[in-house]
Amino acid sequence: MAEVRRRIYVTSPGYDDIGRVLKSMGVGYQSFSGSYDCSLLFVNCGTPDAVDPRKLAEFVDAGGCLYASDLAGDLLGLAFPELFVFAGRGGRTGEIDALVVDRELREISGRMIRIRFDMGSWKVLRHCQGHAIIRSANPGEYADLPIMVSVRCGRGTIFYTCFHNRSQQSVEEQRILQLLVLKQIGLTEGSSVEQVGRSLGVQVNEFRRDFRS
Predict the structure, then answer these.
(1) Rounded CA gap, 66 and 9, in Å?
(2) Long-range contacts of 166-172 (CB under 8 A, 24+ apart)
(3) Residue 72 CA to chain centroid, in angstroms?
(4) Could you give the angle at the alpha carbon of 18 between the alpha carbons of 95 and 168, nearest 5°?
(5) Burial label, 78 (beta-carbon count in 10 A; 0-12, 13-18, 19+)
(6) What is the rounded CA–CA span in Å between residue 183 and residue 194?
(7) Which of 16, 77, 86, 206 would you label with 50, given CA atoms 20 to 30 Å apart?
């Protein structure tokens, strides 16, 4: 499980910078330069990099693990049109109470968290051919909608989140993104979140305290 065996590419920042989350955890990565010879690829919301939908689909089908956030959903719609159903960019600013569905993450985060969308026009995900990791618990227009999902495709997996890393992020939001990173690495290495955390020197028990404080 040594980190040197991991090859992680991250696209240039756009409206968010997932690379900042990786750095906060001591996860090494390289900047995406058009090559897909990695085990994990992180695509930032609004990245200026050119990501080829066909090559992206081939990367996942061959066993790659993909992370994408918010407006990168447009790219998912091109690469995996049968897997995701979006309802445009109608998301509004505000807070959403969210249910953590994934059992491994819920054991650490607790059942409910609160997510703030500080910018409007985020992509609303209506449905996917996969599993919700986090789901809206709000009534009204966002009732029961998936906020963070994982979707199997071929030999690989796609993780998508409607919210993303931002400058004024709550502790809960930062921790849930860090947990998602641990889960993705664990998926590619056959390890649990706790095991990946130990390999990186990340104190998962501190996450538990932060969620419950």
Answers:
(1) 10
(2) 166/15, 166/16, 166/118, 166/119, 168/118, 170/114, 170/116, 171/210, 171/213, 172/109, 172/113, 172/114, 172/115, 172/210, 172/211
(3) 11
(4) 40
(5) middle
(6) 9
(7) 86
**Residues in the chain, total:** 213
In whole angstroms, what is the distance from residue 159 CA to residue 196 CA? 17
The two tokens of residue 178 are 């860090």
Task: Please give the domain boundaries of the chain with CATH numbers for all domains.
Answer: 3-212 (3.40.50.880)
Cα 113 to chain center, whole Å?
16
Predicted pLDDT of residue 26: 92
Beta partners for residue 151, in sequence order: 158
List of residues 6+ apart from 190 with CB closer than 8 A: none
Write the CA distances from 137 to 84, 112, 126, 145, integer angstroms: 20, 9, 14, 8
DSSP codes joined into one string, 92-109: -SEEEEEEE--HHHHHHH
